[in-house]
Amino acid sequence: MEELEKVTGRIFDIQRYSIHDGPGIRTIVFLKGCFLRCRWCCNPESQEYKIQKMMVKGKEKWIGEDVTVGQVMEEIKKDNAYYMRSGGGVTLSGGEVLFQPEFAESLLRVCKLYGYHTAIESTGYAEYSVIEKILPHLDLYLLDIKHMNSQKHKQFTGRENEMILSNAKRIAKEGKELVIRVPVIPGFNDTKEEIREIAKFASSLENVKQLHLLPYHRLGQDKYEGLFREYSLKEIVPIEEQKMKELLEVAAEQSGLKCQIGG
Q1: Maximum Cα–Cα distance across the chain
Q2: Residue 212's beta-bridge partner residues?
Q3: pLDDT of amino acid 96
Q4: pLDDT score for 263
Q5: pLDDT band per the 50, 70, 90 thresholds, residue 1
Q6: What's this model's pTM, rounded to 2 decimal places?
Q7: Where does the chain show beta strands of DSSP type E?
Q8: Which of 90, 148, 152, 200 is the most buried (most CB within 10 A)?
Q9: Are the C-beta atoms of 197 and 152 separated by less than 8 Å?
Q10: How far is CA 126 from CA 121, 131, 153, in A?
Q11: What pLDDT is recorded for position 164?
Q12: Cα dihedral 224→212→119→11 (10° resolution)
């Protein structure tokens, strides 16, 4: 364990007492760096691996910190009692976890040595050999499937989706708990036909039992201003609750999975 705790990675936040992104009360570690550039990203400060200067509430703040696995574990261990009582644990998010595979793998391995439930929130965009090394130390994979049309996927995220869909099939075969999550974005994938296609794909994956629809929100919009970047979706508005319910019905009917709004 000592060598694993020396492995260094770059993070930009650690969020304690979370009740999202996995069961129970969780600590979420946010890693820097991502392969995609999703137009709606609510953590734009996560996309670049480099440490950045960002305006936060009128003050300059440096975003990004190099830490060892051991340093992160010191924060994680503070909430042992909450994990044990609630069935919670640790979730790695980002950015993209797979952007820093050695750090992610080492951190997950140490978490398992402590007996914590482990999860990652990931786009699945990486060579499968990278994912394969992480899976043995993982209890739950929260995988985004954003669109079935590769060209539209590239238009809104900067990358095509073939690798993601291929990886989803291979991850599912490993027998790990795999939850498919769909960020529902107006003008991108918010039609019944598009949700139906994603639900159909999700239902074809082995061992997948849940599909989550995540409604678009504007919570990260101010961060773009802080990074002196333009928010390209500023003209769109969040989806109405009734429409989300209709999309949920479509997903449930098509997939036969346990479907819900939010994750």
Answers
A1: 52
A2: 181, 260
A3: 98
A4: 85
A5: confident
A6: 0.96
A7: 8-18, 26-31, 52-56, 59-63, 65-68, 89-93, 117-122, 140-144, 177-184, 210-215, 258-261
A8: 90
A9: no
A10: 14, 7, 16
A11: 98
A12: 0
